[in-house]
Amino acid sequence: MTSSELWTRATADRYDAEEAENSSATALGPALAFLAELAGDGRALEFAIGTGRVGVPLRERGVPVVGIELSEHMAAVLRRKADEDTLPVTVGDMATTVVPGGFTLVYLIYNTISNLLTQEEQVECFRNAARHLEPGGRFVIELGLPPLRSLSPGQTAVPFDVSERHLGFDTVDLVEQMLVSHHFTRDGDDGRYRRANSRHRYAWPAELDLMARIAGLELERRVADWDGAPFTQDSAKHISVWRKPA
Q1: Which residues face 76 on adjacent strands?
Q2: Taking the chain, what is the end-to-end CA distance rounded to the nearest angstrom?
Q3: Residues 197, 163, 158, 116: is their CA dihedral positive or negative?
Q4: How far is residue 224 CA from its own chain's centroid?
Q5: Are 244 and 217 in contact (CB under 8 A)?
Q6: DSSP state of 230
């Protein structure tokens, strides 16, 4: 049960190189500290663990991490970094796949819940998180806010990155709550660009809170970044923490 678009082998093989800046110790430090504190002495489950950009260094901090990943190609890249005994990964979708044991932390970051393209699947994702959490455990989501305030009347596209080797634009369908990210990436020096796009269903924080309530979870905290800055109307994203009642 998933409408997520599968990552191909080619995309998986170049993912870490393209995300190198976001994978540095400086960039990941606050997120790892945030997640490790919530995990405490328990285990953490990462939905859509991908190539292990976060899961592997979190495991290296001493947090036992288990992953669920839809793309076998992404999981294969992760396996080059950590073996199955060190970081177990189950290939499956994050809305319905169940792994053994209980967890003090389930986390889903880097906008990945938006890969589920229906509200029903997003609700099931919350239910799946609650299913895996021990009483008192937390579910964490990192999600950007759609750039609706940047849209002028009649405008449908908003640039999010204009750099030497990458042009990125989001187009928004306000009725269906769908956002398509368009990427034009220059791989070499011949002036040619590689084009790619990905579809996402955006959801407002209040909608996520309702999904959490349906799953039996309670909002504990919402901040604007991993450093804990206050979440305001000007925030570009949010880190939300829901707790399973003890």
Answers
A1: none
A2: 29
A3: positive
A4: 15
A5: yes
A6: B
| Tokens representing residue 134 in the block | 């021990």
Cβ contact 12:73 at 8 Å: yes
* CA gap 180, 171 in Å, rounded: 5
Identify the residue whose tokens are 């990941």. Answer: 28
What is the enclosing helix (H) or strand (E) of 42? none
Q: Distances in Å between the alpha carbon of 138 and those of 40, 100, 129, 171, 230?
A: 11, 17, 9, 33, 19
Contacts of 143 (CB under 8 A, 6+ apart): 111, 113, 114, 203, 208, 237, 238, 240
Element (H, E) at 118: none
Place of tokens 């991908």: 50
Q: Give the Cα separation of 154 and 156 in Å (integer).
A: 7
> Strand, coil or helix: what is 188?
coil
Q: What's this model's pTM, rounded to 2 decimal places?
A: 0.92
- pLDDT(1) > 60: no
Q: Which of 13, 34, 213, 214 has its CA nearest to residue 140?
A: 34
Q: What secondary structure letter does DSSP report for 38?
A: H
Place of tokens 């229906």: 118
CA 43, CA 36: separation in Å to the nearest integer?
10
Number of neighbouring beta carbons within 10 Å of residue 105: 27
**Mean pLDDT along residues 184-198:** 84
pLDDT reading at 109 higher than 60: yes
